[in-house]
């Protein structure tokens, strides 16, 4: 029998469950987390126990469920909150968001959340009108600023019979978001993990250098390692997006919570982008796509004695430029411009020519910038004419800056 991967091995997680019809899905969430190696301590609000019996959670978690602070030995609640690697509240009701935003500690769950040291992930579930109410949105804003990460809610049919935002994210998505949260470096600027300002977005990222084979053992390519694209995929997932990374050959590991599609040539990459684009809301085209391929690909290794003296080339398709017919409405398109001179002029041209919202321009001849480095100095150029020069930054920081602009573009409609 093969053993399942245990990404949560030796992790203790607190799972808060509130009173919502989605509470039954939390039982399955506990199952997924325990199968992935976590020790899960479930904490239920009084209302939650009216939807699902604590015994269901005890059976899947193998731990007694906390429903009443006073039933615990003295100070055990502080110990639980301080030793948890992370907490997740799923489902989180409007009431719980309001209580935690105002710092209340009037039941076991709100008290534990206030004493929590690790990051907090929240999966809201409620009626669409309650979610959109300015009071709830203000509480969400407060919690986000405090570093709480949100996953969902998703758009779909609700218990009320209406369709709208308010469905709890599926347990598999919550598990992915938790993995990203635990993998994310925590900093003073983001005390409880990342801001999930891309939650609900479906992001397609391309990365790396395509290979254009002339025979099975030789190809044309470029020095891109894919680091910028992988950093974007990791950051988009951390911010709550559902991310597909279309990667040209790369040694880099797949970031947590990201689904990866491996491709080789520009034509493969185009096909993979076309297959996923109808469902995407953001496209980040960070790949260094080959512009030329050998006009003829030999099925067998060409023997050096028989090689032609010159190589006939043909153009590959420009993936970004050819998207108009299939791009869904509202798709945010971000391109990259790797240049060695006249950086801004060329980037402005590409921004317009390829119908982009944003282009990330850099001078790849500058030391510490461009291919195969961990840093990049870029200028962000927007469709509205804004041009912003960033200092030399780690690629993860450039990714955060780019996705911050994407979230802003979405907010401004
Ligand atoms: N790109 C693309 N398809 C191609 C080539 C490039 O989609 N066949 C995308 C890249 O992923 C990048 C943007 O277009 O986001 C700009 O790529 P770049 O290589 O800088 O420019 P090119 O359009 O190839 O133009 P040139 O080679 O003349 O600089």
Notes on the structure:
It is built from 13 helices and 21 strands. With 413 residues, it is of the alpha/beta class. It has two domains: 12-183, Flavin prenyltransferase-like (Rossmann fold, 3-Layer(aba) Sandwich); 202-412, Rossmann fold (3-Layer(aba) Sandwich). Strands 12-11-8-13-16-17-19-20 form an eight-stranded mixed beta sheet, with helices on both faces. Strands 2-1-3-4-5 form a five-stranded parallel beta sheet, sandwiched between helices. It has a two-stranded antiparallel sheet with strand order 6-7. Helix 1 packs across helix 9. The radius of gyration is 24 Å and the shape is elongated. Cytidine-5'-triphosphate binds next to strand 16.
Residue share in helix: 25-40%
In the CATH hierarchy, the architecture of the largest domain is: 3-Layer(aba) Sandwich
Widest sheet: strand ordering: 12-11-8-13-16-17-19-20
CATH topology tier name of the largest domain: Rossmann fold
Instruction: Specify the biggest β-sheet.
Output: 8 strands, mixed
Bound molecules: cytidine-5'-triphosphate
How many separate structural domains? Answer: 2
Q: Indicate the mean pLDDT.
A: 90
Shape: elongated
Helix tally equals 13
Taking pLDDT < 50 over at least 5 consecutive residues as the criterion, the unreliable ranges are 186-193
Q: Find the CATH superfamily of the largest domain.
A: CoaB-like
């Amino acid at each position: 029998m093969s053993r399942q991967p245990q990404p949560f091995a030796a992790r203790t997680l607190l799972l808060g469950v509130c009173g919502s019809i989605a509470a039954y899905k939390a039982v399955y969430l506990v199952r997924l987390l325990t199968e992935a190696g976590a020790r899960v301590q479930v904490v239920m609000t009084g209302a939650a126990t009216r939807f699902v019996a604590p015994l269901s959670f005890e059976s899947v978690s193998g731990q007694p469920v906390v429903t009443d602070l006073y039933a615990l030995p003295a100070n055990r609640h502080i110990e639980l909150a301080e030793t948890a690697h992370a907490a997740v509240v799923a489902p989180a009701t409007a009431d719980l968001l309001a209580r935690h935003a105002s710092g209340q500690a009037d039941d076991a769950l709100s008290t534990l959340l206030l004493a929590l040291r690790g990051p907090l992930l929240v999966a809201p579930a409620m009626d669409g009108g309650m979610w959109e109410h300015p009071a709830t949105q203000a509480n969400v804003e407060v919690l986000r600023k405090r570093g709480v990460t949100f996953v969902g809610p998703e758009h779909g049919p609700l218990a009320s019979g209406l369709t709208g935002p308010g469905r709890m994210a599926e347990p598999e998505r919550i598990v992915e978001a938790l993995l990203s949260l635990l993998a994310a470096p925590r900093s003073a600027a983001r005390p409880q993990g990342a801001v999930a300002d891309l939650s609900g977005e479906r992001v397609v990222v391309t990365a790396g250098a395509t290979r254009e084979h002339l025979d099975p053992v030789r190809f044309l390519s470029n020095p891109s390692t894919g680091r910028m694209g992988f950093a974007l995929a990791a950051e988009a997932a951390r911010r709550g997006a559902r991310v597909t990374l279309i990667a040209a050959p790369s040694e880099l590991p797949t970031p947590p919570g990201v689904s990866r599609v491996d491709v080789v040539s520009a034509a493969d990459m185009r096909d993979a982008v076309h297959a996923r684009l109808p469902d995407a809301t953001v496209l980040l085209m960070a790949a260094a796509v080959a512009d030329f391929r050998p006009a003829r690909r030999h099925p067998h290794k060409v023997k050096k004695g028989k090689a032609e003296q010159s190589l006939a080339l043909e153009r590959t398709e420009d993936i970004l430029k050819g998207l108009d017919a299939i791009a869904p409405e509202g798709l945010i398109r971000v391109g990259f411009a790797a240049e060695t001179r006249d950086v801004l002029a060329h980037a402005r041209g590409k921004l317009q020519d390829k119908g982009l919202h944003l282009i990330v321009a850099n001078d790849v001849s500058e030391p510490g910038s461009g291919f195969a480095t961990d840093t990049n100095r870029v200028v962000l150029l927007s469709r509205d004419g804004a041009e912003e020069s960033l200092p030399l930054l780690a690629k993860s920081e450039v990714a955060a800056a780019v996705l911050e602009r994407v979230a802003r573009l979405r907010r401004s409609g």
